[in-house]
Amino acid sequence: MMNKIKISGNSSAVSCKPRENNEMGKLTLYGIDRSPPVRSVLLTLHALGVEFEFKIVNMKEKEHLKPEFLKINPLHTVPTLVDDGFCLSDSHAINSYLVSKYGKDDALYPKELQKRAIVDQRLHYDSSVVGPTGKAIVFPILHLNNTQIPQARIDALEGVYKNLNLILESGDYLAGNDLTIADFHVAAGVTGFVAFLEVDASKYPKLADWIQRIKELPYYEEANGTRVAQIVEFFKSTNFTIV
Fold first, then answer.
1. CA 137 to CA 143: how far, in whole Å?
2. For labelling alongside 3, which of 34, 42, 115, 215 has CA 20 to 30 A away?
3. Checking DSSP bridges between strand 80-83 and strand 27-31, what pairing results, if any?
4. Catalytic residue numbers, as ranges
5. Rounded Cα–Cα distance for residues 118 and 160 (Å)
6. What is the pTM of this model?
């Protein structure tokens, strides 16, 4: 289902226009394993059972700035999806698109107005709070070679855990009792953030149970588990300190 292919030459030059004939193009995801947004899309693709190709973008080699990649995403970010000549970036947009197009039903992203509104609220919480809170911790380590983490940033992460635990008092999953793409987004982040702050089950039992529930999904290890484990190991190897 997934092949890790390095971007090179003209092989990645894809037109962002739908095909004019009936021939179906290849569904391709461009990304990196360390990215929670990328892993959220991998979780969605696996949940849908969609065949796709996964192309690794070597950010250190600045492959995301090469002309062939800029053709499909001028913002040079990952994840980027190419579906039959249609190009889309931002994991939240990608996942809702994938479910809308390939889902056998709408369970992962409900069409019913109020149910969808709850999922959307959780997605916005992920993009405006969960993601930025984690980024504030990992960005200095990854890009500035700064392994000193201010205590305030860890406190902010604990605040996220507290809020997620509160949300989960209303159901087994973030938007109620059914699994949705909101769970994929937040899980991809939180399972990596535990490198800096473990989820204390005595303080956040609902959150701890939810994480375990996500880990029991049959596709979890392939889509997120094995990938995030490498990231957690890397962060721990930096011997970061909280100051």
1. 11
2. 215
3. antiparallel
4. 35
5. 18
6. 0.91
